[in-house]
Amino acid sequence: MPEGDTVWRTAQRLHQALADRPLTGCDLRVPRLATVDLAGRRVTDVTARGKHLLTRLEGGLTLHSHLRMDGSWQIYAPGERWRGGPLHQVRAVLSTADHTAVGYRLPVLELLRTSDEDRAVGHLGPDLLGPGWDPPEAVRRLLADPARPVGEALLDQRNLAGIGNVYKSELCFLLRVSPWLPIGQVPSPERLVALAKRLLEANKTRPARVTTAEPRADRRLWVYGRAGKPCLRCGTPVRLVDQGRAGQERTTYWCPACQPGPTD
């Protein structure tokens, strides 16, 4: 599932494959960009902003994409077979002399003036993996609605950018708080923000997330993906439920023994 660490890693791979090289081919397979051809333009930078990807090109243009639940960018060598999915799922192809970047199942793909990037990402809170990370501002935004459940507040990218269902569930477990506890009642929200930063930094270069310090595939995460299995700390079966407002529910995993409180 693409979260801030996955998107950061994707940006690094795209930057290494495309930056400082002119595009030899461009195929944007969404209706509003079907006639756009960026071939000949040099890619100047690929960077992540929360869960957003910004591919910047000379001439002051930015190709903005978002992976959401199952989008991906894959890098291929010339002549290598594409393996990211069926061709009808391809939304973007960017080629240089040395690599081809293929975007699959991209729900968001738009071309902006680089000077207008704030139209796409200006609403985001401090980026956990970005150069402008601002812990006090992240805490301030989280506490602006103190009655909001912590699980929902963490997923709101306007508060801090980069957390998804996995880190939301793992952070609440590690802090021993119910995901339904009002954020204003979380002891030391500064610790919550610092732990989120530490987890994403530790995992941004790993192909598989680890929050338990155990490399075994079935023990890498404390609660996420472990519904019905024994809690790795106390043995109580981990629970799974959708959390959030109607129409905006997101998956939450938690241990009712280690995280007592609402819905336990």
Automatic annotation (TrEMBL):
One Pfam family, short name: Fapy_DNA_glyco
Domain FPG-type stretches: 222-260
Limits of the Formamidopyrimidine-DNA glycosylase catalytic domain: 2-103
PROSITE patterns the record matches: FPG_CAT, ZF_FPG_1, ZF_FPG_2
Catalytic activity field: 2'-deoxyribonucleotide-(2'-deoxyribose 5'-phosphate)-2'-deoxyribonucleotide-DNA = a 3'-end 2'-deoxyribonucleotide-(2,3-dehydro-2,3-deoxyribose 5'-phosphate)-DNA + a 5'-end 5'-phospho-2'-deoxyribonucleoside-DNA + H(+)
Family that this chain belongs to: Belongs to the FPG family.
Identification of the protein by name: DNA-(apurinic or apyrimidinic site) lyase
Lineage of the species this protein comes from: Bacteria, Bacillati, Actinomycetota, Actinomycetes, Kitasatosporales
